[in-house]
Amino acid sequence: CEASNLRVATYRAVQDHRAALRHLVHNANDLGIDTAFIFVLGESAGSIASLSSVFWDQSEADAWCPTCVSNVGLIDTTGNSLTDTYTIKGVVNHCGAVTHIDVMDGHQVPVISFHNDPGCVVNYGTGPVINCLGFAAFYWAAGSNSIQARLNTNGVCTQRHTRQELNHCTYYVQPLLKKATCFLKDVMC
Question: What is the largest CA-CA distance in the chain?
Fold first, then answer.
């Protein structure tokens, strides 16, 4: 039961993420947002939501969570009624994962990743989420190492930075921001 609840929670996080992006784009002039350069980032579950928000369309979300639409609605019609569209220029992924590596195919969105190896809360490669905290393993996901491999195969700009320690999200903020800023600047230029 908890595993299916985590799928619904992940799906709902994507709904919230996409609703927030529609709101920001809708109010871009008032907020001083250049909609030509929208980047998303997250840490752990926030990164899973960010990556899924970027790489899912409704059919991919439905395949991953077949009961979610009937339980909580479509990914782009919950949270607000705005219909503004946007394009994501890049993702900063701190210890996140994609729900299935194939969702990245057909997208040209650069990703910079920071991850611990081994990572047992969110696997560095491909494996179950929350597998080491005494909980039963939840759904399987593809972590930063798998993400970089797939993006490289697809010819998409990517970087991965790894901390060799059994822990979760221990990449320090200042070096993470410095590396991410350089990466995003390269994407913009």
Answer: 47
Q: From 28, 94, 16, 84, select the one nearest 53 (Cα to Cα).
A: 16
Q: Which residues lie below 8 Å from residue 182, measured CB to CB, with a gap of 6+?
A: none
pLDDT tier for residue 133 given thresholds of 50, 70 and 90: low
Residue 10 makes CB contacts below 8 A (sequence gap 6+) with 45, 48, 49, 52, 65, 99, 139
d(CA 189, CA 186): 5
CA dist., res. 113 & res. 148, Å (int): 8
CB 131 within 8 A of CB 84: no
CA separation for the pair 35, 86 (Å, rounded): 7
Q: Residue holding tokens 């195919």?
A: 105
Per residue in 137-152, pLDDT (tens digit) is 688 899 999 999 999 9
